[in-house]
UniProtKB/TrEMBL annotation:
One of its GO terms (biological process) is secondary metabolite biosynthetic process. The lineage of its organism: Eukaryota, Viridiplantae, Streptophyta, Embryophyta, Tracheophyta. Its main location: membrane. One of its GO terms (molecular function) is iron ion binding. CDD domains: CYP82. It comes from the Eukaryota. It comes from Stephania yunnanensis. Heme binds at C526. One of its GO terms (cellular component) is membrane. This is Cytochrome P450. The keyword Transcription regulation does not apply.
Length: 586
């Protein structure tokens, strides 16, 4: 039953701009209906209720706040602030410092504006509060870590305790009720789903068996880009949105791995209706996963679509489910047609990930999820994580190279010396390109695809850097800030790949060197690291060796970051491209 307070708050918010709180599949809710506004409405409404003092007292006990005092009133809203001494002892441990300005009920939510990037705001807070601090987002607590030594403690000493994920609205509505492996809570289901995904798709052995797909897709991608350029050979370099091309490439590779399909192909790669539909659906999913829902901050509003996003999530999930159900039916039909030869790859065709999953889990119910739900949830998570993050890193790498022509020239010289002026980069050449490896590492340092990783949650009380972290507290690891620590990285904002060939040559990104953890670490580390690195190295090497890249009017590339759970560029990467080698042989 909906509580009377819920309806009152929603009515107040909808009265603010009821006509705009709508969201179709690709029509996002207006920025005016943001969490800060909602938080203020909730705070103002509860202040007027007779039960306000009881609710506030209850919340103070939950969040263990102390010394509440009224400092003043601003625009009709209560401006209560909380002074927290980090030396206060709780259950034998210190309480982590908090930013000033917390309000009862909403906590620090009002400090995060609609136009501020969360990882940057948290980085600024870390400058004032130190590498570990606590924030309150409505009724949720979160500890923020911005230091490699503390991150190491989280992912080693406390790895098991911090191995689960918070149950968020997006994961429920778009992740098949937490069946999507990256968002699943820690437990038997997650272990089984991750084991299947790792062994049957992302292990080094499996990637070697499937490497011809990766190589053929990169070959086709290079050829299509050259053909586009050759069509306009008399008009000089061709202006392309390179991030769109990266998106097509990475989606094709991952979808072929998983479903044996490709959605983009030919020089007119972005004109096909189904391809366009797939691209829009995958992008909207990625965007919506980055939204902090009101119901996540205020469980009292669960089921009340205050922002309009829940309807959008349900609709986009229905769109994605159409594709995934279609894939499943195609595979089942093919399996029936080849029933007597189901295990003979030569007769049935190459087995992709869905084939393997159908043969592995059949019709069994896997820990509260049926077989279809597990397959669709796992496939959705792998496609989005594998394609989106790789595309993002390629876009940032090219952007950095175009803004640092010395590094670009040096990379091209390495390729020329190792491959030859007219040679083609092969898989076996990659290990002989140390400067290219350093470029990828430096890109991941400055612009990690997931700047806060995915949030973890404490399953029981623990201690982090001497501070008490209660069970149920979320963990944000701000690797964007951690990777820019001047105590570890001299001149941290400078793009300098040479550091990985000299002072930091021992550092890699496979989860054991905590000063560089773009893929995370511990139990919940991204299992797709080998896939991502293989695609990054070969794609970047082929692109730099076979094309000349310039910016329009020789202007610097805009390096503004976009909002979301992944670190997209704020603006498209438009590059003038011309083939250095005229042959279309790949």
């Amino acid at each position: 039953m909906v509580h009377e307070n819920q309806l009152e708050v929603v009515n107040r918010i909808n009265k603010y701009d009821k006509s705009k709180v709508r969201c179709g599949t690709y029509q996002r809710p207006p920025k005016t209906t943001n969490l800060r506004f909602v938080a203020e409405q909730i705070n103002d409404h509860l202040r007027r209720q007779e039960t306000y003092s009881d609710v506030a007292e209850s919340e103070q006990r939950k969040c263990r706040t102390t010394d509440i005092r009224v400092d003043g009133v601003d625009d009709g809203h209560i401006a209560k602030k909380t002074n927290i001494e980090s030396t206060e002892r709780i259950n034998g441990g210190k309480k982590a410092p908090e930013p000033g300005g917390a309000w009862p009920i909403i906590g620090h939510l009002h400090l995060f504006g609609a136009h501020e990037l969360l990882h940057q705001k948290l980085g600024t807070m870390a400058d004032k509060l130190g590498p570990v601090f606590m924030i309150r987002l409505g009724m949720r607590r979160a500890v923020v870590v911005s230091n490699y030594e503390v991150a190491k403690e989280c992912f080693t000493t406390n790895d098991r305790i911090l191995a689960t994920r918070p149950r968020m609205t997006a994961s429920k509505l778009m992740g098949y009720n937490y069946a999507a492996v990256g968002f699943s809570p820690y437990g038997p289901y997650w272990r089984e789903a991750r084991k299947i995904a790792t062994l049957e798709l992302l292990s080094n052995h499996r990637l070697e068996l499937l490497e011809h797909i990766r190589i053929s897709e990169i070959d086709s991608w290079i050829k299509e880009l050259k053909e586009l350029c050759m069509k306009r050979s008399g008009k000089g370099p061709v202006l392309v949105e390179l991030d769109e091309w990266f998106n097509a490439l990475t989606l094709n590779i991952m979808v072929r791995y998983i479903a044996g399909k490709r959605y983009f192909g030919g020089a007119e790669a972005f004109e096909d209706d189904e391809s366009q539909r797939w691209k829009k659906v995958s992008r909207e999913l990625s965007y919506l996963f980055g939204i902090l829902m009101v119901s996540d901050a205020f469980p009292i509003l669960e089921g009340i679509d205050v922002q309009g996003y829940e309807r959008a999530m349900k609709k986009i999930n229905k769109e994605m489910d159409f594709f995934l159900s279609q894939w499943l039916e195609e595979h089942r039909r093919r399996k029936r047609e080849h029933s007597e030869k189901a295990n003979k790859v030569d007769d049935q065709g190459e087995q992709d990930f869905i084939d393997v999953m159908l043969n592995t889990i059949k019709d069994a119910k896997i820990f509260d999820h049926d077989a279809d739900t597990m397959i669709k949830g796992t496939c959705m998570a792998l496609v989005l994580a594998g394609s989106d993050t790789t595309m993002i890193t390629l876009s940032w790498a090219v952007s950095l190279l175009l803004n640092n022509r010395r590094v670009l020239k040096k990379a091209k010289e390495e390729l020329k010396n190792q491959i030859g002026k007219d040679g083609h980069v092969e898989k076996g050449d990659i290990e002989n390109l140390p400067y290219l490896h350093a470029i990828v590492k430096e890109t991941l340092r400055l612009y990690p695809a997931a700047p806060l990783l995915l949030p973890h949650e404490a399953m029981e009380d623990c201690t982090v850097a001497g501070f008490h972290v209660p069970a149920g507290t979320s963990l944000f690891t701000n690797i964007w800030k951690l990777h820019r620590d001047p105590n570890i990285w001299p001149n941290p904002l400078e793009f300098k790949p040479e550091r990985f060939l000299t002072t930091h040559s021992h550092v890699n990104f496979r989860g054991q060197h905590f000063e560089l953890i773009p893929f995370g670490s511990g139990r919940r580390m991204c299992p797709g690291i080998s896939f991502a690195i293989n695609v990054l190295h070969l794609t970047l090497a082929r692109l730099l060796h076979e094309f000349e890249l310039e910016t329009p009017d020789d202007a610097p590339v805009d390096m503004n970051e976009g909002p979301g759970v992944t670190l997209m560029k704020a603006n498209p990467l438009r590059v003038l491209v011309s083939p250095r080698m005229t042959s279309t042989k790949c």
